[in-house]
Amino acid sequence: MVEVSASILNVPQGDESKIFLALEKGKANYFHIDVMDGKFVKKDTYNQMLEYASYIKRISNLPLDIHFMVENVKKAIDDFGVFEPKMMTFHIEACETYSEAMDYIEQIKGYNSKVGIAVKPDTEVAETYPVLPYAHMVLVMTVEPGKGGQTFLRDMVDKVRQAHVYIEHNDLEVDIEVDGGINLNTAKPVKREGANILVAGTSILKAVDYGEIIKELKKTKG
Predict the structure, then answer these.
(1) Considering only CA atoms, which of 22, 27, 35 is closest in space to residue 87?
(2) Looking at the domain 3-219, which fold is it?
(3) What integer is the mean pLDDT of 49-65?
(4) For this structure, is 175 an active site residue?
(5) What are the extents of the domains in the chain?
(6) Could you give the maximum distance between any two Cα atoms of the chain, in Å?
(7) pTM for this prediction
(8) Is 179 in the active site?
(9) Pick the catalytic residue: 34, 37, 79, 175?
(10) Predicted pLDDT of residue 147
(11) Signed CA dihedral, 54, 57, 60, 66: sign only
């Protein structure tokens, strides 16, 4: 059974409280917080996600799974680390050197958070391999980062397989999360290739019963 990280990127304003509590009741494993700065990607959700993260910590015990799509990773870690997230993930593309990536990893661990390393669709997953032994999760983007509701890029299934093979071959305890266009159909191939955390937003929010689709995503077989 996989875990489900519920993306709140497209939660309608005014419905936040109702939806956040419904996602928790529906047994999502995490709230997925998409932090964008308007530079690394075009959309800017930074302040909105600070508000959401703060609000969620007040009303829910569900862990935060924070995905940084930002240029200034150091500042973002400090800004969101105060919310005691379960996971903080930064993009390997935001790092110019191996040393810079390792600095972010140590900074995240300083907040007692797990570390995730993300890759865009046009980046080889092998770019994460030098730092993956020091992380807890690799996030394979199955859409271009920056907005919700996009169509799943099926070419990314092979990237999930590559990551799984590397993790198994090197005996690493590293999860594989996939993010982008995940629904009951697209969950099957990524699960088959080794993904064990699914980020889903639109497919859950459009469902009549959050709990039912979350349950189905968790038990989706390849």
Answers:
(1) 35
(2) TIM Barrel (3.20.20)
(3) 96
(4) no
(5) 3-219
(6) 47
(7) 0.95
(8) yes
(9) 34
(10) 59
(11) positive
